[in-house]
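INFO batch 0412 | record 1 of 1 | parsing
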Amino acid sequence: MDSYTSGFMDLLQSQQESYNNENNTQLSDEDHEDVNTPKVAIPKKKWSAKEDVILISAWLNTSKDPVVGNDQKAPAFWKRIATYVAASPDLVGFPKRESAQCKQRWAKMNELVMKFVGCYATATNQKASGQTENDVMLFANELFENDMKKKFSLDHAWRLVRHEQKWIISNTPKEKRMSKRRKVGSQAKSSQPINLEDYDVMARPLRVKAPKAKTKKIPNVKKKKKLIQCDI
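INFO prediction complete | emitting tokens
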């Protein structure tokens, strides 16, 4: 190999090493940036009372769906709720809520409402003579704030669901629901057909017939007593 060829090979080798070093440095810097670059968190937008109302309406209506019913899978259930919320004309301009967000909001809201239900029940049981419903509500809110260290801000949600049968059942322990079903079932099996002829009082006005029945029975008792005395 002459000096010219040798010099050319040395030049190629040095260029290759320089290229490799630059690539390694670039990759190392990029990896370093990925590790140290903080991920920008997407700010969570708080749910408004109007959104809560629509979410509750969606939950109640979807739960009562006669076609799908309560056997539908959870992902499909919350997807349908999210679709219901997104389609509401009352929420035009509001941020779109995904199914996972709807599920999380419902869980949090339901937890706090259930807590307030307990506070309201306690306040009702301790209601003194002369106190009004407003007094009960003030005391219930005070109990909630003392326990949770924050004020109850879901009064709108509580008033919507408190009398809804579906909501009440969904928050009843499964064991309690099963025992109630067994009790109702056993009563249905043990019940006998009722002969209405044996219950004349049910078919007749009490204020007319009942007094006559009593006046007829009383003399009979006295006659029996007289007969017994004569025999003696």
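INFO post-check: Residues 49-173 form one domain.
INFO record closed
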